[in-house]
Amino acid sequence: LLPAEAEALVRALEGTELRDAGGQGWLRQHEYVEKLNMHAILSASTGQEQLLTELLVTYAKVPVLIGELISVEIWKHKIFPVLCRLKDFKPRSTFPIYMVLQHEASIINLLETVFFYKEICESAEDSILDLIDYCHRKLTLLTARTASGETAVLVPPQELQKQAETMEFEISLKALTVLRYITDQVESLPLSALTRMLNTHNLPCLLVELVEHCPWSCWEAGKLKKFENGTWHVVPPEDQVKMTKLDGQVWLALLNLMLSPECQRKYHFDCFNKGQLLKLRAFLTDVLIDQLPNLLELQRFLSHLAITEPAPPKKDLVLEQVPVIWDHIFKKNAGKWEAIAKHQVKCVFSPTEEELKFQAQRWAQTYSLDMMEALAPSKPRCAVCGTEAAKRCSRCRNEWYCARACQVQHWQKHKVACNLMA
After folding, report:
1. Which of 411, 392, 412 is nearest to 401 (CA)?
2. What whole-number distance in Å separates Cα of residue 175 and Cα of residue 30?
3. Is 70 exceeded by the pLDDT of residue 154?
4. Which of 98, 248, 340, 399 lies 20 to 30 Å from 210 when distance is taken between CA atoms?
5. b/e map of 225-239 (b: 16 or more CB within 10 Å)?
6. Which positions fall inside the MYND-type domain (predicted)?
7. What is the pLDDT of residue 155?
C-alpha cells in the first residue's frame, strides 16, 4: 500500500454491530483489516512497519481492532449456536461463516505484528484489559485441549470443520505472542492490567502449563513434530532440543512477569503458586539456557524461591477496573441473541447469486496470487522433483516448476486442473 492508501484504510476502520457480522458493511471493514494485515506483514519483513504503527496510534484505532476481536468471539459463542438450532438456517453458502472466522484471525495477526511496539500497547488504553482477557481465554482453551486431547471449537458446517479447528489453533498461538508483547511493557502498564494478569488470571501458572504440555509439539509414529510458520513438520533428531519461537515466547513472558520487582511485589506466592512455578526447574537445562541466556536469572530466582518463604503481598487499597468492551457488547445485546440470529439468517446467510459473484470478485482482487506468494513463508517448490522453483505454468499460474522438462513430464496430470482454472 502507498502511504496515502494505508492512511485512508486506517481512518476508515470503525466498530461494527454484532447483528451486522457477515453483512456487506461488515465485509467491507474486514477487507480493510485484511489489506492492512497483509501490508503489515510485508512491511515487517523489510523493517518498514513504523508508518502503520504511527497511523494506528494517531487515529486511535487499536481499541477499535480489539473491539472487533471481542465482537467476533461473542458471535462465535453466542450467535452461531443459536443459528444452528434454527430450523430455517440452511445457508446457501459457507462464505459468510468463513469470513467471520477469518476476521478474528486477520485482526489477531495484525495485532501480533504491531504490538511489538510500546506505543501500540500504550494506545490501547483501557481496552488492554479486554485484550488480556481475550488472550487468557485462548491460552486456557489451548492448554485444556492439549491436556485432554479433545478439540473444543466452533462446529460450523462439515466442510469448514477442519479449517475452523486449524484456524482456532493458530489464533491461540498468535494470542500467546500478543500476550508476551504486553508483558514486555510491564513497567508502563496500568496497575489494573498488572493485577488482572497476575492475580485475576494467574498467568504465571498458565504459562507453566504451556511449558509442560507444549501444544505446538507432538509425537506421531515415533517422530517428533513441531508447529512452525503455519505448518507441522518432522524435527530431525539433532534439532529436537532446539527452542522454537513459540517456546521462546512462553519463556520470555515468564521472565517478564517473574523478574519484574513490581510483579514480585504484587503476585501471591502461596503454596500452590510456588509449587507450580518450581516445576520450571526441571525444564531449565543447560542446553535451554545456552539458547536463551536470560533464563539463568530465572533459574536463580527459582532456586531462591525454593528455600525461602516469600513475604505475603502488600495489602493495598485496590480499585479494580473491569473490561469495558465485553461488558458493553453483552449488555447491549442481552436477550437479543435469537433475534440477531434470525436477522442474520434472512440478511446474511441467504445471499443471491449476484451478491456471491460480486463478493467473490472483490476477494479475488484482495487475495491476488502475487500477494499470496509475497506473504508465503517459504519459496515455491517444483511439482515434479520438489526442488526450489522459479517458473510456473503461464496458463493457470498455479503450478510451479524448476525447468521446462519437469513441466512437460507433469502435463498429463496437470492439464485437467489447468483447463478448469484457465
Report:
1. 392
2. 19
3. no
4. 98
5. ebbeeeeeeebeeee
6. 382-418
7. 47
Q: Residue 252's CB: how many other CB atoms inside 10 A?
A: 18
pLDDT band at 93 (very low <50, low <70, confident <90, very high): low
Pairing state of beta strands 391-392 and 231-234? Answer: unpaired
List own/partner pairs for 277-281 with CB under 8 A and 24 or more apart: 277/204, 277/205, 277/208, 277/302, 277/305, 278/302, 278/305, 278/306, 279/208, 279/211, 279/212, 280/208, 280/211, 280/254, 281/306
Looking at residue 249, its pLDDT comes to: 96
> Average pLDDT in the 68-97 region?
82
Mean pLDDT for the stretch of residues 117-131: 92
- The pLDDT-based confidence of 92 (bands split at 50, 70, 90) is low
Which residue, among 328, 367, 352, 371, has the nearest Cα to 127 in the 3D structure? 328
DSSP 378-405: S--B-TTT-SB--EE-TTTS--EESSHH
Cα Rg, the chain, nearest whole Å: 24
- All structural domains of the chain with their residue ranges: 1-189+323-351, 191-320
| Bridge partners (DSSP) listed for residue 400 | 392
| Beta partners for residue 220, in sequence order | 223
What local confidence, expressed as pLDDT, does residue 311 receive?
67
Helix, strand or coil, per DSSP, at residue 348: coil
| pLDDT (tens digit per residue) in 21-65 | 888 888 889 999 999 998 888 888 777 668 899 999 999 999 999
Tell me the C-alpha distance between 325 and 64, whole Å.
10
Residue with cell 539433532: 238
Query: CA-to-CA distance for 407 and 201, rounded, in angstroms?
Result: 56
Instruction: Indicate the pTM of the whole model.
Output: 0.83
Q: Tens of pLDDT along 184-209?
A: 998 888 888 998 999 899 999 999 99
pLDDT at 371 over 60: no
Name the β-bridge partners of 217: 226
Other C-beta atoms lying within 10 Å of the C-beta of residue 276: 17
For residue 135, which amino acid is it? C
What is the rounded distance in angstroms from the CA atom of residue 406 to the CA atom of residue 233? Answer: 26
Q: Determine the Cα–Cα distance for residues 121 and 114; give it in Å rounded to an integer.
A: 9
